[in-house]
């Protein structure tokens, strides 16, 4: 076994990434306050060829050194849009045929690992504020809620960790 050097990896150029067919998935950040979580969203979007990121409400936007620190430049080629109103994004995505999925612990959440999802179905996955979660008004506009089953004391994961797990489960296995 030999550890690969960065130049030995089959990396796309930013131009090739932009032109490549994307996974029919968008990530919506609803008032995510940590710029490190925002940067991680860009890295995850890059890794899984996600269509677009929507940065809503108080969610910070590039350019910012704290986002860049985690994104490592992914913010320069991943498509993104900033808007104040998460609900308007959801309405737009519903009209465009996206299944709107909240990642939240609710009385109606489905366990992520049992959720059946076709990788051809357009899907928007919403992640919320690190303390308060997804806004109630946004939650009520979603088609369904997914939850990552947890068995310890806290039942809480960092937003970026949750993004990685959910996106991997929805699209990673099919690549």
Description:
The longest helix is centred in the N-terminal third of the chain and has 13 residues, at 35-47. This protein has 175 residues and is of the alpha/beta class. It has a single domain, classed as SPOUT methyltransferase, trefoil knot domain (Alpha/beta knot, 3-Layer(aba) Sandwich). The chain has six helices and seven strands, in the order H-E-H-E-H-E-H-E-E-E-H-E-H. A seven-stranded parallel sheet has the order 3-2-1-6-4-7-5, sandwiched between helices. The chain has helices spanning 14-19, 35-47, 65-71, 86-95, 136-140, 159-171; strands at 23-30, 50-56, 80-83, 99-103, 110-111, 123-128, 144-147. 31% of the residues lie in helices and 21% in strands.
Quick structural overview:
The chain is an alpha/beta fold and 175 residues long. The protein has helices spanning 14-19, 35-47, 65-71, 86-95, 136-140, 159-171; strands at residues 23-30, 50-56, 80-83, 99-103, 110-111, 123-128, 144-147. It has one domain (14-174): SPOUT methyltransferase, trefoil knot domain (Alpha/beta knot, 3-Layer(aba) Sandwich).
């Amino acid at each position: 076994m030999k550890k690969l050097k960065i130049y030995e990896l089959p990396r796309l150029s930013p131009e090739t990434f932009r032109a490549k067919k994307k996974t029919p998935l968008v990530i919506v950040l609803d008032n995510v306050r940590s710029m490190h979580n925002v940067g991680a969203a860009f890295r995850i979007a890059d890794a899984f060829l996600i269509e677009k990121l929507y940065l809503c409400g108080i969610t910070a936007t590039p350019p910012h050194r704290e986002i860049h620190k985690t994104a490592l430049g992914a913010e320069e080629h991943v498509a993104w849009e900033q808007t104040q109103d998460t609900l308007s994004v959801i309405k737009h995505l519903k009209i465009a045929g996206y299944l709107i999925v909240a990642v939240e612990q609710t009385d109606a959440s489905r366990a992520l690992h049992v959720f059946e999802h076709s990788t051809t179905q357009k899907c928007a996955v919403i992640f919320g504020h690190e303390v308060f979660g997804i806004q109630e008004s946004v939650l009520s506009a979603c088609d369904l809620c997914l939850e990552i089953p947890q068995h310890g004391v806290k039942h809480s994961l960092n937003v970026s960790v949750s993004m990685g797990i959910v996106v991997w489960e929805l699209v990673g296995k099919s690549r």
